[in-house]
């Protein structure tokens, strides 16, 4: 009945040492490969992180420079506007004063002629 399944006479007992050696070699190789790969991956990750950090720093520096330039431009514009406004106001005041003086002068003349 049960002829085929129960014939487990494996004559592999003298090969065990070879198997152990092969297993050890395989384990060592796998371990070395894994370690090397993990080291390589870690190095790559570190390099990527460093590159990202450098890029971020560069971007931040560029942004800061742009902000500084914008601030300088704004300050210059404000100064120009202020100067222009002041000049315009001064000119207007001077013109008003001149007009008032002329009016007063003419008035005095008219009073004088009467």
Automatic annotation (TrEMBL):
Kindly state which keywords UniProt assigns to this record, in alphabetical order.
Membrane, Transmembrane, Transmembrane helix
Question: Which residue ranges run through the membrane?
Answer: 20-46, 53-80, 86-106
Q: Which domain of life is it from?
A: Eukaryota
Among its keywords, does the record have Transmembrane helix?
yes
Query: Could you identify this protein by its name?
Result: Uncharacterized protein
